[in-house]
Amino acid sequence: MLSELKAVLTRSSDTLVQDAAGAAALVVMLIVSLHLPGLV
Questions:
Q1: Cβ-based neighbours of 9, under 8 Å, separated by 6 or more
Q2: Which residue spans traverse the membrane (predicted)?
């Protein structure tokens, strides 16, 4: 299991940063959208 996980991480290391940035952007959009009704 750990060797498979290590292999996946080494294979997808190029897109791992982009995936993390996309996930962070989604979290920020979720937080902003939840706070938006209180601002209006």
A1: 16
A2: 20-39
